[in-house]
Amino acid sequence: MPRMAASDRRAELLEAAIRVMARDGVAKATTRAVVTEADMTLGAFHYCFESRAQLLELVTETLTERYVAEVRGLFAPHKDIRDSVLDSLHAFWKGFEANPGEHQISYELTQYALRNPGFEDVAMKQYEIFLRAFAGLLELAADNAGIEWTEPVPGARAVRPVDDRRPQHDLARRPQHADSRPRSTARDHFSARPPRPPEPRAA
């Protein structure tokens, strides 16, 4: 096994875990399966991660950061908030169509964590990661549009089911029956205050 920095080794193990989960399912992504996929030893795994639970949490963080990076650039200054939300849903959906197995990981991971003793905290942390990411995007959209959300955190909770249920629906119906048209009505589910007035200039 070639020498590499611990951060690089961890990144390779995370990507290996994602490949195994997308291909074989979360339950099959054992530590042994992950190190085999990465062509590393069990010792390397335990050097990089405190536990398999930590690996699952970091998989969620990695995938969420990946999704956020795909849509962050769509929230341009002075862009209408509804257009920003709809464009982000379009981008998310394109990513889902390109790699449905990777998106399926989050749904499987939640159920796996809830059904297996010792992993309960993973499900809660997964939810917190999702909520924090969506809230951050909504705040970015509001800042660029010059508005303020009336209820920032509940707003993030509202968009998450919109984001969740369509992929779940089409994962069950894929590939020939999937509806690739994002629902534009989703962009109208948010409540916002009018644009902020300009700041008064100092005398």
UniProtKB/TrEMBL annotation:
Keywords: DNA-binding. InterPro entries: Homeodomain-like_sf (IPR009057), HTH_TetR (IPR001647). Signal peptide: none annotated. Residues 160-203 have a biased composition (Basic and acidic residues). Residues 7-67 form the HTH tetR-type domain. GO terms for molecular function: DNA binding. Residues 158-203 are annotated as: Disordered. Residues 30-49 bind DNA. Pfam families: TetR_N. PROSITE patterns: HTH_TETR_2. This is Transcriptional regulator, TetR family.
